[in-house]
Write a structure and sequence with these properties.
It is elongated and about 90 Å long. The protein has one domain: Multidrug-efflux Transporter Regulator, Chain: A, Domain 2 (Orthogonal Bundle), CATH 1.10.1660. By secondary structure, it is an alpha+beta fold. Strand 6 and strand 7 form a beta hairpin. It is 50% helix and 17% strand. Strands 4-5-6-7 form a four-stranded antiparallel sheet, covered by helices on one side.
Length: 139
C-alpha cells in the first residue's frame, strides 16, 4: 500500500521541502504517479528516523551514509528499519541488532558488558581465594 504526500507530511511532521530534497538526494525513493509521490510504509519509517536523528543533532550526510551502509549490510530486508534499534549521540548513528551494537556510519562494532556484575564476580572470587588461602595455611 502507498500513501500520498499530504498524509505522509501529517504523520511524519516532515515539510514539503524536506521531502522534495530527500527524494532529490536519493535518501528516500517514493513511487511517482504523474506529478504526485506515494510513499510506502518503509518510506514513512525512514522519514520518521531521519527526522528523529536530525532533531538529535545528526547531519543528513551521516544519516544517509548510515542508511546506505545498513541497506548494503542487509540488502534483502524489506523491514530493515523496523527490526533495528537506532539511536544517536548527535555525532554518530548507532544500531542495536539482536544485542549486537555497531556504528552505521563507520560500521565499527562495539561490545558491552555489565561492569557492576564484573565487580561482583571479582569480589566473590577474591573472597573465595582469601578463604582458600586461610584454610590452606591452617592445614
Amino acid at each position: 500500500m502507498s500513501y500520498p504526500t499530504q498524509l505522509v507530511r501529517k504523520v511524519t511532521r516532515a515539510t514539503n521541502n524536506q521531502l522534495k530534497y530527500w527524494v532529490k538526494v536519493g535518501i528516500i525513493e517514493p513511487e511517482k504517479k504523474g506529478k504526485a509521490f506515494f510513499y510506502s510504509f518503509s518510506d514513512i519509517i525512514k522519514i520518521k528516523l531521519i527526522i528523529s536523528l536530525k532533531e538529535n543533532g545528526l547531519s543528513l550526510q551521516k544519516i544517509q551514509k548510515g542508511i546506505n551502509n545498513l541497506t548494503n549490510l542487509l540488502p534483502d530486508s524489506d523491514d530493515l528499519l523496523t527490526r533495528l534499534i537506532i539511536y544517536t549521540d548527535g555525532r554518530d548513528m548507532f544500531v542495536n541488532e539482536k544485542g549486537k551494537y555497531f556504528s552505521a556510519t563507520s560500521m565499527q562494532r562495539f561490545f558491552g558488558f555489565d561492569t557492576e556484575q564484573l565487580n561482583n564476580d571479582i569480589i566473590e572470587l577474591y573472597d573465595h581465594e582469601k578463604i582458600y588461602v586461610q584454610v590452606k595455611k591452617v592445614l
